[in-house]
Specification:
CATH class of the largest domain in chain A: Alpha Beta
Largest sheet of chain B: none
Bound molecules: adenosine-5'-diphosphate, magnesium ion
Number of strands of chain A: 10
Radius of gyration of chain B: 18 Å
CATH architecture of the largest domain in chain A: 3-Layer(aba) Sandwich
Strand content of chain B: under 5%
Largest interface: A-B, 35 and 26 residues
Order of helices and strands of chain A: EEEHEEHEHHHHEHEEEH
Radius of gyration of chain A: 18 Å
Oligomer: heterodimer
Number of helices of chain A: 8
CATH class of chain B: Mainly Alpha
Structural class of chain A: alpha/beta
CATH superfamily of the largest domain in chain A: P-loop containing nucleotide triphosphate hydrolases
CATH architecture of chain B: Orthogonal Bundle
Largest sheet of chain A: 6 strands, mixed
């Protein structure tokens, strides 16, 4: 148990002003180095689950522990070690940042107060930009990129952080087929080479990468299935055929 | 400016420049975080506070500070969570602070129409003392130092609050730090540009800078510079045509911002 990198016990999260929890009674344990897909229909609570794990949303019941620490207390420090690519983003044309800054900003939490980015930080940023084929866009304003390019920038930002955990919320949604495969491959490689723990939210069964062995099926805010990929996929397909 | 002693001219020009620089820097936050209605309400609360000070015979600056900071403390949490639309805040509270200010002025014994009372509304150069100048210098220095020290955190906050939190940067303390500094600036600038128009300097210079740049370092720099230019040019205009300073600054600022929108590369399709 000491090894579990993410541990949710009986967790419910209620949005402010709402009465019905968006996720409820969640028990979920993830070991270090796992690659887990979270699937479920729209409104199942997938986004809510990810943001409960990194503490962007305060949970209303239960306990969330990440890297052995209580998210409710150490959320800010923990988030500097968790990469997160949100599902929804909107940057209008006037957003006052360049692509390179956005990626660098991913590291601000770990750089810490009163410190300036070092050569090492810039090197990580450059590497992440190159991995996602964004090197040429580095000096462009973020708001002038396409949705797919912006999504890649957010991915680069999450990777540049050198996170211990990567939370990806439908990271392929704005990408074309070719880019989808490249990014899936990149994530797989990082997972393997850096024993990175990855939680990948998808609404689409097809898109689950081969290297992902465990699937969690969410519906109506609850975990319906959690187990080996084949079993959960079968259960999901059966349920949808009825 | 003819016939004025040089020392006075230097005080006035430095006061205008410092106010412009301080407001320009802070305006970057006000514009990007959409705090303008909050700033607007704060500036009138400062005016009401100063008026109360005049009525009670207490140093107006102290109560102006209290008014501005109190408004920030009450409205900050509301604005922060976007619970109330900005125009509602302004629509309800602006008349209230204005009404209070005028009542206090009315109650102020013998000062209702005196120059110090009018100065609160329209700004009066000559009300500015050497102490004011030192206070302004301290304030502008504090703001510049704060921006420099916490540039990373402010950049993250100004980009996207949720993503700032995501990267492990706490945003709340910095949000309130900005509100607090804005309150201080408004209270101090009251005597120079007046309660009605402090707000303009918190808006136009930064809005102008946002028209031209995407790099936040440049935006800060140019916002401060435009602040100095607008305030300085306003001062010149005010002298040349014997206009109230606040109005002169508004004229210049509007002109500058209009030109910027017209010439902005951001609006040009590339
Ligand atoms: N900001 C919000 N305020 C209130 N309810 C929300 C909010 N965001 C999501 N919800 C509700 O929470 C439930 C789960 O949403 P979400 O986690 O976004 O689902 P998914 O990501 O699986 O599509 C939905 O019923 C949705 O209506
Ligand atoms: Mg979602």
């Amino acid at each position: 148990m000491a090894d579990s990198i993410i541990e949710l016990k009986n967790v419910s999260t209620v949005y402010e002003g709402e009465r019905v929890p968006a996720i409820r009674d969640i028990d979920l344990t993830i070991e270090s180095g796992e690659f887990v897909a979270i699937i479920g229909p729209n409104g199942a609570g997938k986004t809510t689950l990810l943001e409960t794990i990194n503490g962007l949303l305060p949970h209303t019941r239960g306990q969330v522990r990440v890297l052995g620490q209580d998210v409710a207390r150490f959320g800010t420090q923990l988030r500097s070690q968790i990469g997160y690519v949100p599902q929804e983003f909107q940057f209008d044309e006037t957003t006052p940042v360049l692509v390179r800054d956005v990626v660098l900003m991913g590291r601000y939490g770990r750089i810490g107060l009163f410190r300036r980015p070092t050569a090492e930080d810039y090197a990580q940023v450059q590497e992440a930009l190159e991995l996602l084929g964004l090197a040429e866009l580095a000096e462009r304003p973020l708001g002038k990129l396409s949705g797919g390019q912006q999504q890649k920038v957010l991915l680069a930002r999450a990777l540049a952080k050198e996170p211990k955990i990567l939370l990806l919320d439908e990271p392929f949604s704005h990408l074309d087929c070719a880019a989808r495969e490249e990014v899936a491959e990149l994530i797989t490689r990082w997972h393997r080479e850096r024993s990175l723990t990855v939680l990948l939210v998808l609404h689409d069964l097809e898109a689950i990468p081969q290297s992902c062995h465990r699937v969690v099926l969410l519906n109506g805010g609850r975990i319906r299935h959690d187990g080996a990929r084949e079993r959960v996929v079968r259960a999901f397909t059966l349920a949808h055929r009825e | 400016m003819y016939g004025l002693p040089w020392s006075l001219i230097i005080t006035l020009v430095s006061g205008a420049a410092l106010t412009g620089a301080a407001c320009g820097l802070l305006g970057t936050f006000v514009v990007r975080l959409r705090l303008s209605s909050l700033g607007f309400t704060m500036s009138h609360a400062a005016f009401a506070g100063a008026a109360l000070g005049l009525a009670l015979g207490i140093e107006p600056l102290t109560l102006a500070l209290v008014g501005a900071i109190l408004t920030a403390a009450v409205l900050g949490p509301i604005a922060e969570r976007a619970k109330l639309p900005a125009d509602v805040i302004t629509g309800v509270l602006f008349p209230l602070t204005m009404a209070l200010g005028l009542i206090f002025l009315y109650l102020a014994p013998g000062t209702a129409m005196s120059s110090s009372a009018l100065g609160l509304l329209w700004g009066s150069l000559f009300a500015m003392t050497r102490e004011d100048l030192f206070r302004l210098l301290g304030l502008a220095g504090t703001i510049a130092l704060t921006v420099w020290l916490f540039f990373k955190e402010f950049q993250a906050l100004l980009f996207d609050r949720k993503l700032a939190e995501e990267s492990g940067v706490p945003t709340r303390p910095f949000y309130y730090l900005i509100l607090f500094l804005t309150g201080m600036t408004i209270a101090l600038a009251l005597r120079l540009v007046g309660g009605l128009l402090v707000f303009v300097l918190l808006q136009s210079p930064a809005a102008t800078a946002f028209q031209f740049f995407y790099d936040l370092k440049k935006i800060f720099f140019w916002a401060a510079l435009f602040g100095v230019i607008y305030a300085g040019a306003g001062l010149g205009l005010s002298f040349a045509f014997d206009l109230p300073l606040g109005s002169a600054i508004v004229l210049i600022s509007t002109l500058g911002f209009g030109l910027a929108v017209w010439r902005s590369p951001k609006r040009r399709r590339t």
